Inverse folding.
């Protein structure tokens, strides 16, 4: 018999009754029923109930002294449970193991967090003792889901003709929209490597090298703030690139992969058919108030700016007269809600930084509410038609400069959708957001910056860069969105040196700076580069959606805190003066705050 186990803890069934087996695992729970001691023994594969009679005093006393989470090996006979004690929730629930020998492999001390059960614990404790947290069933299953998703993607991409390559971790800094993590170069004092924010340049160079279809489960590093759908420090993505493709070719290649993945792991939820809807950036901001719309929400925002032009409702009329816009958000079936419903939404709007949340209620006899009192009836009817509402519905409004009004209207749409229970929680709905602006203006400096990926091909090419307002240029850039979560940004790449130099010049990068920062790519393009494009769906976000988790930390084995700390390993940590000297570094620390 094997020293540790003949079976794992999820393997035994009623057909195994009568055989002698050996199991090893962690004591999940203990229950003393007088003359019998019950242990639930857990390993990676499942749980088996073990029974130790008090008559076997040696084994009984051994087990009685052990805390939960101690690791033991037990040998015993498989017996079927009585019908009244069968546990249908466990695959092993028809049997139990009558133990006649026990070996202690490792004794557990008092636990800082409990493994069994569904108790909640502070996040700092969970992260400090992450190895205990990972023993908990839900988190354990999340990590298995993550592993299975990655394995599925690797198989699928390979079968679709993509070749997996790994790209460098130590590289040069690149403007990817976040801060780099820097690594001092010991052999080159005063110089630094950067950890890649994405393998952007390398995957493009693989296309220049003639490999045609690349993919990688790529680690990426960005020194940026944490949020629910963004892990601080590092994340992983399904990075891929293709040669001689249009934007539609990229979509056609990855839609069956993502759609198929979600169908494989959806656990009963539906997935919308591909090809997924294509929605322009401008249309998304108008209809949904977001460039990552949740299409499970059926509400669509309407532009009612013209209806309020020179209208009797002075507040909105003045906003329109000064270049602002007015958006209408429908709210079906709320006409019979009490006044408190509208008051709560008004208070919510103020907490969001808005002045309030105006509305019109439409009834069979006409429009009612504070705005309707000061608005011509024909204009109210025009709003009803524009918002596509009927008697018993209401319309809420967002007004202001175009960017702020769009964002707030999107928040109102989301709020109403959730409050009215309009979100279909049993489906995954994908869409593409396309035709992003190539550039945007920094509100503080007035500088024109790239709005998305700086290596994207502008629509219209060099002619557009030379002849039209940069802020009107669209790019062959796209995002894929699922249930309001951006899974990936992508683009058809700029593969021509002349177009690339001009594109960066508009964003304030002179040719010398572009040559210094991206000389490798420019040089490669000068020796013949194919048209190419790709994308990089985020693994962490995919698993978060599939697991139904609200936060990425629930699907990452060893995440950092919101402050970017590893409480378990003690990182980041200071280094010795000798090591600093070796790296030719000196510290210039910020002053400590004064004690009060």
């Amino acid at each position: 018999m094997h020293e540790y186990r003949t079976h794992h803890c999820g393997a035994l069934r009623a057909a195994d009754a009568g055989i002698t087996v050996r199991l090893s695992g962690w004591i999940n729970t203990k229950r003393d029923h007088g003359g019998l001691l019950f242990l639930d023994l857990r390993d990676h594969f499942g749980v088996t109930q073990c029974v130790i009679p008090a008559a076997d005093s040696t084994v009984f006393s051994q087990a009685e002294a052990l805390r939960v989470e101690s690791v033991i090996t037990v040998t015993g006979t498989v017996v079927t449970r009585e019908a009244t004690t069968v546990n249908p929730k466990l695959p092993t629930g028809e049997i139990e193991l009558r133990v006649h020998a026990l070996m202690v492999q490792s004794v557990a001390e008092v636990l800082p967090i409990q493994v069994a059960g569904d108790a909640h614990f502070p996040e700092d404790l969970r992260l400090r003792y992450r190895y205990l947290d990972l023993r908990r069933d839900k988190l354990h299953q999340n990590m298995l889901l993550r592993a299975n998703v990655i394995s599925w993607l690797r198989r699928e991409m390979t079968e679709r003709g993509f070749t997996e390559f790994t790209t460098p971790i130590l590289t040069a800094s690149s403007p990817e929209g976040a801060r780099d993590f820097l690594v001092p170069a010991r052999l080159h004092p005063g110089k630094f490597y950067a950890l890649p924010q994405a393998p952007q340049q390398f995957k493009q160079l693989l296309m220049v090298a003639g490999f045609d279809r690349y993919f990688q489960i790529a680690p990426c590093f960005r020194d940026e703030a944490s949020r629910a759908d963004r892990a601080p420090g590092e994340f992983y993505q399904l990075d891929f690139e293709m040669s001689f493709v249009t934007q539609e070719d990229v979509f056609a290649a990855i839609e069956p992969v993502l759609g198929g993945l979600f169908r494989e792991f959806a656990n009963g939820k539906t997935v919308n058919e591909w090809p997924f809807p294509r929605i322009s950036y401008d249309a998304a901001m108008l209809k949904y108030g977001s460039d990552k719309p949740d299409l499970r929400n059926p509400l669509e925002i309407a532009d009612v700016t013209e209806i309020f032009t020179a209208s009797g409702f002075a507040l909105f009329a003045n906003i329109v007269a000064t270049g602002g816009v007015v958006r209408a958000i429908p709210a079906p079936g709320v006409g019979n809600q009490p006044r408190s419903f509208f008051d709560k939404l008004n208070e919510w709007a103020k907490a969001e930084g808005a002045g309030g949340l105006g509305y019109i209620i439409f009834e069979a006899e006409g429009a009612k509410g504070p705005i309707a009192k000061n608005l011509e009836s024909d204009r109210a009817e025009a709003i009803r038609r524009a918002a596509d509402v009927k008697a018993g519905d209401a319309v809420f409004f967002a007004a202001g400069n175009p960017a702020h009004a769009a964002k707030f209207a999107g928040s109102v749409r989301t709020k109403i959708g959730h409050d009215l229970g309009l979100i279909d929680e049993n489906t995954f709905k994908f869409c593409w957001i396309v035709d992003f602006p190539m550039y945007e203006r920094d509100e503080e400096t007035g500088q024109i910056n790239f709005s998305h990926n700086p290596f994207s091909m502008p629509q219209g090419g060099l002619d557009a860069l030379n002849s039209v307002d940069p802020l009107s240029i669209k790019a062959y850039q796209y995002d894929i969105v699922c249930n309001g979560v951006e899974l990936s940004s992508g683009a058809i790449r700029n593969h021509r040196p002349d177009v690339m130099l001009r594109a960066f010049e508009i964003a304030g990068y002179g040719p010398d700076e572009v040559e210094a920062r991206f000389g490798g790519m420019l040089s490669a393009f000068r020796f013949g580069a194919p048209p190419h494009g790709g994308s990089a769906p985020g693994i962490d976000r995919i698993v978060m959606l599939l697991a139904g988790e609200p936060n990425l930390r629930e699907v990452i084995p060893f995440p950092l805190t919101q402050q970017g700390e590893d409480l378990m390993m003690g990182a980041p940590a200071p280094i010795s003066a000798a090591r600093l000297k070796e790296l030719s570094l000196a510290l210039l620390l910020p002053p400590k705050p004064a004690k009060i």
About this structure: The mean pLDDT is 95. The two ends are 68 Å apart (CA to CA). DSSP finds 17 helices and 24 strands in the chain. The CA atoms of residues 183 and 193 lie 5 Å apart.
